[in-house]
Amino acid sequence: KVAIKGIERELICPACKELFTHPLILPCQHNICHKCVKEILFAFEDSFADGGSESSNQSSPRIRISASSMDRIDRINRSGTKRNSLTPRSTLFPCPSCQRDIDLGERGINGLFRNFTLETIVERYRQAARAAIAIMCDFCKPPPQESTKSCMDCSASYCNECFKIHHPWGTVKAQHEYVGPTTNFRPKILMCPEHEMERVNMYCEICRRPVCHLCKLGGGHANHRVTTMSTAYKTLKEKLSKDIEYLISKESQVKAHITQLDLLLKETECNSERAKQEASQSFEKLYHILEEKKSAALKTIDTSKNRRLEKLQTQVEEYQGLLENNGLVGYAQEVLKETDPSCFVQTAKQLHVRIQKATESLRSFRPAAETTFEDFVVDTAKQEDILGELSFHSNGLEIPEINEEQSKMYNKALISWECPGKTDSADIYVLEYHKLNKEEESVIWQKTEVCGKSKILSDLDDDSNYAFRVRGYKGSICSPWSREVIMRTPPAPVFSFLFDDKCGYNNEHLQLNPRRTSVESRAGFPLLLGSERLQVGCYTTLDYIIGDTGIAKGKHFWAFNVEAYSYLVKVGVVPSNKIQKLFHNTHDVTSPRYEQDSGHDSGSEDAFFDSSQPCTLVTLGMKKFFIPATPAAPKDPASRILPLPSCLGICLDCDRGRVGFYDAGCMKCLYECEVDCSGLMYPAFALMGGAAVHLQEPVTAKYREYHDDI
């Protein structure tokens, strides 16, 4: 048998930290006092009505609600259903034991069972704790006698004489159940909280709670697996008995673990003191170095001050000598009184030289020493940054690595990182970044704290290089900085548009996705039938599609992906006054080179073709990027063929009349040319054969979440 005083820990309510009073069983199988449930729910309603939880916490002195619990109350209030709603309202309750939000259902507290077994154990504990305090008879005339029995049917306590009077032999009351003196009276039959007139006679194995037959027939447990109460009683009692026997048989092992834990407690205390001592020594070293530097700096300043004061004091004395009847002037006045020429000349020659010097210094006055100490300013900016980063470093905390493939520079910057071990060992991450500028001598890092493993930044300048680094924190311990990664922002603000499904769109050859962000050419029977009509001198047509938004002025950038299997794709811009010509260009159907009556030779046809292009396009296909043949381009055709970037970008500068084609991954310009921007400019695309183009989506708050789902 276990001593009753040894189980006090199990009889304490997690909310009020006192012995249970009328404990209720929550759906999570934890227990809580009936009053505590009501007070916490009142705190819910007070915080919901007042818009805060501070006042409600003060108005409930019986329960101790922590700051984290009050934050959960506020969260539940924000997410819960408003009162007076037409829909059934479910009550959410934060369990103080498991810290989870428990759904109490529509009935709230009324749907919870009272834990009579726990209540009986608490009463036995109370009786053991106050054995010297007797329970008095409820029916004796003053003075009352000590009770000897308690009737569970009458819910009262009696002495021997009163019990005989109120329970006479041969009456119904004589059949009442009586126990030893107690103040804990519980009903003999456990009733269903859902159906108050029905007694529980079954046990739901899904919800792990007693239910009545109405709950099973048409209530919330209709489709649940249930068993009889006797079967559940026998099964649970056997399991509990076996578990208790196992624990008792492992008593020596438990004691060994307790001894080990006691040693660990002492070891933790010793190691913490040693760590504090080592940390103090490290800071004492820094203090000592700073004190030495401080003493040396102050000594240097004092030495310079004394030297300057000495020079200035000497200069003051010299100028005081220039006053009448003082110093040099007074002495010269006395020399002038000499009447002997030879003696006067002998003295006046040297005196005259001194007088001339004094006159020159008076004309060009200049202090003998500087009064400012600008050369003695201590620059501690770098040291302050280093000291600001001073923290505990741990080899156990993994160094995060910035994933350049998942990171992205577009309308905003998406910076993603991961740990080599694929485990989230840090509680929080700190991302730092700064703009690379050769003119700036000192680097000023901008810092932001992140709870996840990615961050979206929106305050970066266009056409600039940025350095990024990240480190992890777990409490006061931090990892070293990751390797710095340099990324470049787009050369201009990002221009957003969709594919136009109306102007010239050929739905027989091209297929748009519902969001109009992707287009794919379908090289099917329509293309074969079109080619079958022409026997000679034919090349297949290009299917054009443009953006649904035009550009009138300014500098803009957009990016897209071309599928690797694409045979032929042309990308660029087209002015609004040439869109009709683009979609009705006869030169895309047949070549006059092979027409018998064309009258064109090879050279004249090439010249005509180059001058008649309605838009500025570059050719992509077969995983290659083809630089157009221009006078400035390399003569060797092989040098004009580049690998196709995974993401391509176009930058249109209407003010300068130029368009550039970029590798959007590193923002490197591959080709740039002049373009006529006299009209409204539209993004243009052309596809032939099997090909597909996907517009780059802007970076938003849900961008990473969307792509993770993909």
Overview of the structural elements:
This protein has 710 residues and is of the alpha+beta class. Among the domains are: 1-45 and 89-132, Zinc/RING finger domain, C3HC4 (zinc finger) (Herpes Virus-1, 2-Layer Sandwich); 231-363, no CATH class; 401-488, Immunoglobulin-like (Sandwich); 510-587 and 612-695, Jelly Rolls (Sandwich). 31% of the residues lie in helices and 21% in strands. The protein is built from 15 helices and 34 strands. A 7-stranded antiparallel β-sheet has the order 22-23-34-25-30-31-32, with no helix packed on it. Strands 12, 16, 17, 19, 20 and 21 form a 6-stranded mixed β-sheet that branches. The longest helix has 70 residues, at 251-320. The protein starts with 22 loop residues before the first strand and ends with a helix. 18% of the residues are buried.
Write the layout of secondary structure elements.
Layout: E1 23-25, E2 31-33, H1 34-50, H2 54-58, H3 67-79, E3 92-94, E4 101-103, E5 113-114, H4 116-129, E6 149-151, E7 156-158, H5 160-166, E8 178-179, E9 202-204, E10 209-211, H6 213-218, E11 226-228, H7 229-249, H8 251-320, H9 327-335, H10 341-363, H11 381-388, E12 392-393, E13 401-402, E14 408-409, E15 413-418, E16 428-435, E17 446-450, E18 454-457, E19 465-474, E20 477-478, E21 485-488, E22 510-512, E23 518-521, H12 525-532, E24 543-546, E25 555-562, E26 568-575, H13 579-583, H14 602-611, E27 616-621, E28 624-626, E29 641-643, E30 648-653, E31 658-663, E32 668-674, E33 681-688, E34 691-695, H15 703-709
Parallel strand pairs: 12-20
Antiparallel strand pairs: 1-2, 1-5, 3-4, 6-7, 6-8, 9-10, 9-11, 13-15, 14-15, 15-18, 16-17, 16-19, 19-20, 19-21, 22-23, 23-34, 24-33, 25-30, 25-34, 26-27, 26-33, 27-28, 28-29, 30-31, 31-32
Helix pairs in contact: 1-3, 9-10
